[in-house]
Design a protein that fits this description.
heterodimer; A: 281 residues; mainly alpha; MetI-like fold; 2 domains; B: 298 residues; 14 helices
């Protein structure tokens, strides 16, 4: 039966549904891209087919770099995402290793606590957290995001790394310990090199989440040049009546681009990271 | 000096103390920026605090007031629709996507990367795409329907009170479908191929095999993805903030956006905190269900 599958049948069973999904899932990106490449006047030209670019221009992208704070937003987003990711990874490696390998009082309770923290949404916390940020003098500084993002990242990353660390045979560690290595030396010299795929998953996951985060950035970094890309684009590029659709879409395309590229390179790591939590539990 | 070094060394060697030390940096961050704000939020919700104004303790007054606030009723209704109606769609579309991707095909890696994009890229930015697709003047959907003669006037996707909630749900389904797709795909790939073959030899048709071989294998991941999705959608913010800010006439307000409007825009932090806390019991139920299920699986 499998051998007798004709091309026509495959088209009907696979490629037709696949085409539907590709159109459904990718159309908004296609639309954003073509609008970003059109001169603004062409949008109003009713005789043009809106699904195609008649007159190609990069004017919208030039506008973005010369007339808006977009380059600043990119810098802010990068700084916050990189530092937050590093902090989260370090904390998660330590937590993941402790929960995977060490027996200590309260470890069970802490494990459940970390899992529950994964389910606490930012919308539940943002009002009181804003007060904490102000009181600590972090308002409108990078630290406001660098220190709060890890609370959203550490739970998942620790969970994921704990799973990875558990797959490393205990015997390797035990023989290293017999050779006089301390726990921390074992972690750095043996466990981490063996967990690089897991570290990559956790790192990509964390970086993506930082880059995409919206609510905390909207509230804690509200002044012009300190905004991150999503917040800057949404709050500064949309101005009441005069919508510059071209540059708005250009900024959305450019802001998504790094994540799309990063993800295309590491698709397997991201997927294994994403599914690790759900499939393995 | 030497004594001190020995003590530090043994602290780092004894499992019980090392475990606690390793937990510290992460736990500290979670305490200061998650646990403490949570309890501070409970306190704020019991006061009439505003921005720059220290509140008085007023007991459960905020919670009671909300019960007779018609916008809050609307918000609760919208949130339930938004969280509960979208999930079956995301699940069904994600299942279809997973079944398609599970076939051997050319370019399967780029295709997988491509279909994940709605879930991967910054939601606030992709939602801007929808913001234009739903625009009353520039919508390509309206253009298409007008051209084939199905409508004579552009559709006001986000401005029409009845349509607005459907439009935001649609954008949410679009965003969440790939998540279900990839999770279910992982479940499908864990189904042993010989099970399918054995069932086929026994004469089981495609539908029968799906029901009796595939479904039992993916039930668990579907349940987990569903519970996570309900929790996330329930507590969403950015998609609605970008598309409608809760309008028109509060028809798309959900807990997150309403808490933002009352707590920050109207500067009634105490009341805003109370709105956000109304999410807590419902979120807890789903979180506990998830925890119980995962424990049972182990």
């Amino acid at each position: 039966m499998v051998g007798g599958e004709t091309l026509g049948r495959r088209t009907l069973d696979i490629y037709l549904p696949l085409a539907f999904y590709l159109v459904f899932l990718l159309f908004p990106f296609y639309w954003m891209s073509i609008v970003s490449l059109k001169p603004t006047n062409d949008l109003f030209e009713m005789k043009y087919n809106p699904f195609w670019v008649q007159r190609f221009t990069l004017e919208n992208y030039r506008y973005l770099f010369e007339n808006t704070a977009f380059p600043e937003w990119v810098k802010n987003t990068l700084i916050v995402s990189v530092v937050s990711t590093i902090i989260s990874l370090v904390c998660s490696i330590l937590i993941g290793y402790a929960l995977a390998r060490l027996r200590f009082p309260g470890s069970n309770f802490l494990g459940v606590g970390i899992f529950l923290a994964y389910l606490v949404p930012p919308t539940l916390l943002f009002l009181p957290l804003a007060q904490v940020i102000v009181k600590l003098g972090l308002y409108n500084t990078y630290w406001a995001l660098i220190l709060t993002y890890p609370t959203q990242l550490i739970p998942f990353a620790s969970w994921l790394l704990m799973g990875y660390f558990r797959t490393i045979p205990k015997e390797i560690e035990e023989s290293a310990m017999a050779d006089g290595c301390s726990r921390l030396q074992i972690l750095v010299r043996i466990v981490l090199p063996l967990s690089i795929p897991g570290l990559l998953s956790a790192g990509i996951f964390s970086f993506t989440l930082c880059w995409n985060e919206f609510l905390y950035a909207l509230i804690f970094m509200s002044s012009g040049p300190m905004k991150t890309i999503p917040v800057g684009v949404v709050s500064d590029m949309i101005k009441a009546d005069t919508l510059f659709w071209g540059s708005l879409m250009a900024s959305a395309v450019l802001g998504s681009f790094p994540i799309a590229i990063l993800y295309s390179f590491f698709v397997k790591h991201y997927v294994s990271g994403l599914t690790a939590g759900a499939v393995k539990g | 000096m030497r004594g001190g070094a020995v003590t530090t060394g043994s602290l780092l060697e004894r499992e019980s103390s090392l475990g606690v030390i390793l937990m510290l940096p992460g736990a500290l961050l979670l305490m200061v920026f998650m646990a403490y704000p949570f309890f501070l939020g409970i306190w704020l919700s019991l006061t009439d605090s505003g921005i720059g104004r220290v509140g008085r303790f007023i007991g459960l007054q905020n919670f009671v007031d909300l019960l007779s606030d018609t916008i809050f009723h609307q918000t609760a209704r919208n949130t339930l629709i938004y969280a509960l109606v979208t999930v079956p769609f995301k699940c069904a579309l994600g299942l279809g996507l997973a079944l398609v991707l599970n076939n051997r095909m050319r370019f399967s890696n780029p295709v997988r990367a491509a279909v994940m994009m709605p879930w991967i890229v910054p939601t606030a930015l992709s939602t801007l795409g929808w913001f234009m697709i739903f625009d009353p003047v520039f919508s390509p959907i309206s253009w298409l329907l007008r051209h084939v003669g199905l409508i004579s006037k552009n559709i006001n996707f986000l401005g029409d009170p009845g349509l607005a909630i459907a439009s935001v749900c649609w954008a949410n389904i679009w965003r969440g479908t790939p998540f279900f797709g990839i999770i279910i795909l992982a479940g499908l790939q864990a189904v042993p191929a010989d099970l399918h073959e054995a069932a086929a030899i026994d004469g089981a048709g495609l539908w029968h095999r799906f029901l009796h071989v595939t479904v039992p294998h993916i039930k668990g991941v579907v349940l987990i993805a569903g519970l996570l999705s309900v929790i996330w959608t329930f507590a969403d913010f950015q998609l609605i903030y970008v598309l409608t800010k809760g309008g028109p006439a509060n028809q798309t307000h959900i807990f997150g956006t309403y808490a933002y409007q009352i707590g920050l825009s109207a500067t009634e932090i105490g009341m805003g905190a109370a709105i956000a806390l109304y999410m807590f019991p419902i979120l807890s139920v789903f979180a506990v269900l998830l925890l119980i299920y995962l424990r049972r699986e182990e």
